[in-house]
Design a protein that fits this description.
single chain; about 70 residues; about 0% strand; mainly alpha; 3 helices
């Protein structure tokens, strides 16, 4: 999938109720990060991006809990 296709798929999932809860999304990201082979070129950069996404979800979850 190219970037545009990915963004369309994300929007469609969100609109149809197929999005994960933030807690589940964080857990899924943790599984993906844990499975990365850091000896592969570029894996550390991917891990960094996934950690930033997980942190974003964490912040959104914390804000939602405060409401």
């Amino acid at each position: 999938m190219n970037r545009t296709d990915v963004l369309v798929a994300i929007a469609e999932l969100a609109q149809t109720g197929g999005a994960s809860e933030p807690e589940d999304a964080i857990s899924h990201l943790a599984v993906i990060i844990d499975s990365l082979d850091l000896s592969n070129s570029g894996s550390e950069q991917v891990m960094e991006m996934l950690l930033r996404i997980a942190a974003c979800l964490w912040n959104l979850q914390q804000e939602r809990m405060r409401l």
